[in-house]
Write a structure and sequence with these properties.
about 300 residues; 9 helices; globular
Length: about 300
């Protein structure tokens, strides 16, 4: 199987648009389309359905995605077994806060060959760290195996995102309690994941509820819903790079008193000898944690 085509498929699935995958892979959008078409021909199935502002996975695409990621990890293990390789770091999403933190490291240390990986959840990331197929991961973690270390690096504020007709759209800020009774739609919240555990504890702490009803057609569909609705809102990280058409006129509303924060940590294998790891840890060295925030009990 053509691993370049598999890599292109994974990048397009994560980005939600062939154009963004092309930018990430430093190839043309036409090359992305050709690679995916060749992969679909080899597999005998359709992997994507085109929509107005991108592409979403078909049922076959959803089934193939975790196997595609495993193929890329197998490739990394094979390369690591025969020589040196780039510094491989996992981020939960290329538009989310950890990717921004890692980009800052890259800009400060361009001499380091860096490869960005996106694994689905903490369990997958920790397994990859332990086996050496990645060197580090940004995750919100609780209990770790004895051979894995972690260090907190950043508390990211969580904000309300809503459309212009929402009752809270004009607010300069809201408290967590004010969100009670409002529909918070987050179809990407998956039980058993670290973000699922975070939002479950946040909801319980303030008597809120999340509507995770799917199917999950991606961020663009959620943004379309917010723009059209006077009732639906969602939650996003303050550092997340969420883009929407100008006509949507969406509003980011800070949540304060207290401010819920998502606790990002760096995870690595104990005894790792990769020379770039120490530089990344030094670059990410955090300051003091704010006292007027809420974080889950396991992150205190």
């Amino acid at each position: 199987m053509d691993l370049d085509a598999v890599r292109t498929f994974v990048s397009a699935a994560e980005a939600g648009r062939f154009q963004d995958a092309a930018v990430h892979l430093s190839i043309t959008q036409q090359a992305v389309s050709k690679r995916i078409a060749a992969l679909e021909k080899a597999l005998g199935v359709q992997l994507f359905t085109r929509i107005a502002r991108g592409a979403v996975l078909t049922g076959d695409g959803e089934v193939f995605l975790p196997h595609a990621r495993e193929l890329l990890l197998a490739e990394a293990r094979a390369l690591a077994s025969v020589g040196t390789r780039p510094f491989r770091v996992d981020v939960i999403g290329r538009r989310l806060c950890p990717a921004t933190l890692l980009r800052g490291f890259h800009e400060a240390h361009r001499e380091i060959a860096l490869e960005v990986v996106t694994l689905f959840d903490a369990a997958s990331a920790i397994a990859a760290v332990r086996e050496g197929s990645i060197d580090a991961s940004f995750r919100a973690v609780d209990v770790l195996p004895e051979d894995v270390d972690s260090a907190w690096v950043f508390d990211e504020p969580i904000q309300l995102l809503c459309g212009p007709a929402h009752p809270l759209a004009a607010s300069s800020s809201v408290t967590p309690e004010v969100l009670a009774g409002h529909r918070i739609w987050m179809p990407g919240v998956v039980p058993g994941t670290e973000w699922g555990a975070y939002y479950a504890e946040f909801m319980a702490a303030f008597g809120l509820s999340i509507d995770a009803a799917g199917p999950n057609f991606g961020t663009e569909v959620v943004l379309d819903m917010l723009a059209e609705s006077a009732e639906v809102a969602t939650l996003v990280g303050a550092e997340s790079r969420v883009r929407w058409p100008a006509g949507h006129d969406l509003r980011r509303v800070p949540i304060e008193d207290p401010t819920p924060v998502y606790p990002h940590s760096l995870v690595w294998r104990r005894g790792s000898s990769h020379p770039a790891l120490a530089k990344l840890r030094a670059h990410l060295r955090p300051g003091a944690r704010a006292a007027t925030t809420w974080r889950p009990g396991w992150a205190s």
